[in-house]
Each structure stands twice: as C-alpha cells, then as structure tokens.
Design a protein that fits this description.
binds magnesium ion, six-stranded mixed β-sheet, alpha/beta, 24% strand, 10 helices, binds adenosine-5'-diphosphate, four-stranded antiparallel β-sheet, 38% helix, Rossmann fold, 2 domains, 10 strands
C-alpha cells in the first residue's frame, strides 16, 4: 500500500446544531495507509466529525472528498460501498449467533453481488472462509464458535471491528474503540489495530493518550470544532496550542 496518497479530505467542514458550531471549518487530510488519530477534549466535536464522514450527519457547509470523489451528500450505504466504513455502522453484533456466523453475515453484506454467479454452497463456504480469516485478524480465532453474547466486553468490541473489516473498507472509522475497557482489553485492542497497520487506513478517535501515541502515524487535534494542529506524534506533543488545550495533564502521561 503506498503511503502519502490522500484518501480522505475535508474542506472547511461546518456543522451547526442551532447556535452551536460543533464543526468549525475543519480541514483534515488522511493519507492512504496511515493510522490517523483524532484527539481533543470532551465535546470538541470528534464524534460529530466522524458522523459526517460516515454519512450519519449532513454537514451544514463544506466538502468531504474520499478516494478521488466528492461524497459530501452521498448516503451512508453508498459510502460503505466506496470503502468508507465505520465500526458499528451497517452490522451490529447479533448476540445469539456465533462469532463466525456474525462475521459471515457481514461478509455477505459486502459480497452480496460479487458472488451471485457462484453456486450457493460454494458461495457459503467462501463466506465462512473469509469470516474465519477476519476472526483471526481480530484475535477471535479461538472464540469463533462461541455465541457472541457470551463474549467479554472487550471481545465484543473486537468483534465489532471484525464486522467492519468484513466490509473490506479502504478507510475504517473508529470512535473510541477502547471505551469501557480494562487495561488488558485495551492492550489487546492496541495489538489488534497494530496488526492492521498498512492493510487498512484508519481514522481513530481515542481518549487513551498512551494508545494514541503508540498507534498513530499522524494526529490531528480538534478543539471547539476547529482543527488546531495536525502532525506527527512528536509535533503534536510539542505543539503549544495542543498543550494549551489539554492544560498539560494528559500529555504529561505519555512522557511529552
Ligand atoms: P466529542 O465526540 O469530541 O466529545 P461531540 O461531537 O459529541 O464531541 O459533540 C460536540 C458538541 O456538539 C458538543 O457540545 C455536543 O453537546 C454537541 N452535539 C453533539 N451532537 C449533537 C446533537 N445531535 N444536537 C445538538 N448538539 C449536539
Ligand atoms: Mg465522542
């Protein structure tokens, strides 16, 4: 996968909720192959930005370009078809089905048309092979035959990432994948995401600064809906604007 080619770009994106400007002329660029982290204090507008990228929210003004196309007004399912997927977006976990059945359904949602010329039994086998591969990718190989509802919280989040991966996205949007996890579960998720590096481009919103600084190739910082800085982890650590926004505390913890 070639780095540096631009995969996603927002241009002066604005989202207003009544009088509140949740996204304030945000211009963001994500390169093919990178893990791009989006950080910012609570209420900075991170989720609102992700929702506009996925198509869940329509921007008030500005543009979104993805993979050489303008997608600002495209509905969510068409963005997914182009390869822009958010964990949780199309398929959510069916708690009474096995891990493998969940993943096979997500594979089917993606390949629905491409396998239409295959015999049903062969298409089914191919789907389950693809599902088993995704289970391995997200560290759920040993849990493949377990009922999804019986998995731990952390494993269910791993499965959610798997469901998104089954859609074979060019860009995976992850909004706080480690929320509610203990240290061991967080560590497993970091390892999982590390393993996808170079294979899937990611825009990662995450609170855990330790995880962000370990994973990200580049980081953009959002404050009051504005992108105040974009750069390498080192540049972001040293940015006076970012330090000001965090009042030092969270960045201290990562040895900045
Ligand atoms: P973050 O994810 O960075 O914590 P959000 O994007 O959730 O921030 O929220 C940004 C701001 O927009 C907050 O002030 C929040 O209260 C507001 N907001 C988010 N969604 C809505 C909505 N649907 N209606 C009104 N205000 C909203
Ligand atoms: Mg949020």
């Amino acid at each position: 996968m070639t780095r540096h080619a631009e995969l996603l770009r927002t241009e002066r994106l604005v989202k207003r909720f009544g009088g509140l400007v949740a996204t304030d002329h945000a211009s963001l660029s994500v390169a093919t192959g990178e893990i791009h982290a989006l950080i910012g204090p609570n209420g900075a507008g991170k989720s609102t930005l992700v929702h506009q990228l996925s198509g869940a929210l329509r921007p008030s003004s500005g543009q979104i370009h993805f993979d050489g196309r303008e997608v600002t007004a495209l509905p969510m399912h068409e963005r997914v078809r182009l390869g822009l997927a958010r964990s949780y977006q199309i398929t959510s976990v069916f708690k009474r089905l096995t891990v493998l059945d969940n993943l096979a359904l997500a594979v089917q949602a993606h390949d629905g048309s491409s396998m239409r010329f295959w015999r049903p039994a062969r298409a089914e086998r191919a789907r389950y092979e693809a599902a088993a591969q995704v289970a391995e990718r997200v560290g759920l190989g040993p849990q493949a035959q377990r009922i999804a509802g019986a998995l731990s919280h952390g494993q269910q989040r791993q499965l959610e990432v798997g469901l998104a991966l089954a859609l074979r996205p060019k860009l995976l949007l992850l909004d706080e994948p480690m929320a509610g996890m203990g240290p061991d579960e967080s560590e497993r998720m970091v390892t999982l995401l590390q393993g996808l590096r170079g294979e899937t481009t990611m825009l990662l919103v995450e609170h855990d600064m330790d995880a962000v600084f370990r994973l990200a190739d580049r980081i953009s910082a959002l404050v009051f809906g504005k992108v105040i800085a974009s750069g390498t982890p080192d540049e972001i650590r040293k940015s006076p604007e970012v330090r000001q926004a965090y009042l030092g505390d969270e960045l201290e913890e990562v040895g900045a």
